Amino acid sequence: MREHAEMIANLNPRIPLIADADTGYGGPNMVARTVAQYHRSGVAGLHIEDQIQTKRCGHLGGKEVVSVDVFQQRISAAAAARDKLASDIVIIARTDALQTHGFEEAIRRLKAAAAAGADVAFLEGVTTKEEAREVCRSLAPTPVLLNMVENGATPSWTVAEARELGFRIIIYPFAALAPAYEAIRSTYLRIKETGITDIDPTFTPKKLFTVVGLKEATAVDVAAGGQLYEKV
């Protein structure tokens, strides 16, 4: 997770990256280590949840959560690690207790996490606008994040609707995954059925390399007096 986060964060360090840190990957020491490694990798914010170590996707059934005390310890360890590093990494506390223990317990856990040092609250699997408004109201002034997983437990709300409900941040986990899967699958099916990819003729090898940094690489080479890229 850290390696992938570092790769993505450094594609353009000016764009902040929020990365999933699951349960923190262990007890307080592992949580602190996770925060330190994510910080050094260039991650701007990470979310840590209250599921048991053998966790599952927040939009699947059958989840189990740890006690509120253990959850608070995870967040406290994360906040202490951040302060020790003099880091500005944003700590997002996520609870999955809505499905397992109900709305009131989920709110209690998020408030405990905020008291332990979390910067942002994250109620996973919110199902109604009433729940959304109430979690934002109850956690104020702590900002609340919306996990917009299309076709999951949460209704598909627009950015304007989310803002009206009171959310301050939205993440879109499927926004890149789903279109990429469909495009790749359809292309390979086309090869199987027709024998060609039918890729846009303007998408040349040079365009691909330009997307991933050809101009920047050329500039570095030229500035150093090189001629490696002059005929590209």
Automatic annotation (TrEMBL):
MF terms (GO), sorted A to Z: methylisocitrate lyase activity
PROSITE patterns cross-referenced by the UniProt entry: ISOCITRATE_LYASE (PS00161)
Listed Pfam families: PEP_mutase
Reaction equations catalysed: (2S,3R)-3-hydroxybutane-1,2,3-tricarboxylate = pyruvate + succinate
InterPro entries noted in UniProt: ICL/PEPM, Isocitrate_lyase_ph_CS, Pyrv/PenolPyrv_kinase-like_dom, Pyrv_kinase-like_dom_sf
Segments traversing the membrane: none
PANTHER family referenced in this protein's UniProt entry, alphabetically: PHOSPHOENOLPYRUVATE CARBOXYLASE, PHOSPHOENOLPYRUVATE CARBOXYLASE FAMILY PROTEIN
Stated name of the protein: Methylisocitrate lyase
Protein's organism: Trichoderma harzianum CBS 226.95
Lineage: Eukaryota, Fungi, Dikarya, Ascomycota, Pezizomycotina
